[in-house]
Design brief:
The protein has about 280 residues and is of the alpha/beta class. The protein is built from 12 helices and 6 strands.
Length: about 280
């Protein structure tokens, strides 16, 4: 096609959205103007979004999904464009987390987002601002997303959440003592829920610890599995069962070696009272 601009989906989330939009439009054999007519906008607008010159609004993504019969694919990709403060791959993970029937977490160093109090989340991001890793606006975005993720799990039936925390998560202070006291109380409340299991992986596990980095496993309503893990710059969502099942096996081994929930609660109670 004459003057058809090549798209580089690796350039940005907006570029990936544009590539997906073009691919879906091509599947229908429509021109930009023909899609625009069905969406109630202009062909120039479609062109600008496809080439990444204009970010998609939530309304645009919904309208495009409807016109192209794409379910919510474009809406999910649009969320990745919106959350610019997040590591690449994480916004896509969040959309699956919100629908999961079971969530298995292993975290190192910090309390996982699903269990954070607002004050703990704010203290964590304030430290990132201090280090100039993110802007104050991006910190606010991250804290808001923590609340949104937690709210998405307040549904019926409730998802089963199994959390194994490295001992460093509860021993690392974050913010003022009052922040940690409230966070400990939040963990104890979580442990009492009928749809939760909380365990601490103690330092004494040593080499028996099967993971050195955080990992998350999701069981979806259709019982399919996926795992999510992060490197320094990007997150990776894995759906291939031959890769996910060994991670699930390792997670079961982690749970067997970690402290029981009763022992874990006792450790958190001691820390809340200020005893070692």
């Amino acid at each position: 096609m004459v003057n058809r601009k090549e798209l580089d989906p690796e350039r940005s989330p907006a570029a990936r959205f544009g590539q997906l939009l073009r691919a879906l439009r091509d599947e229908h054999g429509w021109t930009q103007d023909e899609l625009a007519e069905r969406m109630g906008c202009s062909g120039t607008h479609i062109s600008a979004v496809e080439t990444g010159r204009r970010p998609p609004t939530p309304h645009f993504a919904v309208s495009a999904d409807r016109a192209l019969g794409a379910g919510d694919r474009l809406q999910r990709q649009a969320r990745a464009v919106r959350y610019t403060a997040l590591i690449e791959g994480f916004p896509e993970y969040v959309t699956h987390e919100a629908r999961a029937a079971e969530i298995r977490l292993y975290e190192v160093g910090v309390i996982p987002g699903l269990l954070q109090t607002p004050e703990y989340a704010a203290a964590l991001e304030a430290d990132a601002v201090r280090r100039e890793a993110i802007t104050p606006e991006q910190a606010d975005e991250r804290v808001d997303l923590v609340a949104q993720r937690q709210a998405a799990l307040m549904r019926s039936p409730s998802p089963l959440i199994l959390a194994v925390l490295d001992e460093g998560c509860v021993r690392r202070p974050m913010g003022a003592p009052a922040v940690m006291a409230a966070q400990f109380a939040r963990l104890l409340e979580f442990a009492e829920l009928p749809n939760s299991v909380l365990q601490i992986a103690p330092f004494s596990m040593g080499a028996r610890r099967p993971f050195s980095l955080p990992v998350t496993l999701l069981t979806m309503p259709d019982r399919s599995l996926m795992s999510y893990a992060e490197s320094t710059h990007r997150g990776h969502l894995e759906r291939e069962s031959s890769f996910v099942l060994p991670i699930l096996t390792a997670y079961h081994q982690l749970q067997a070696e970690a402290l029981s929930q009763a022992e874990s609660v006792a450790m958190i109670e001691q820390l809340r009272k200020g005893s070692p």
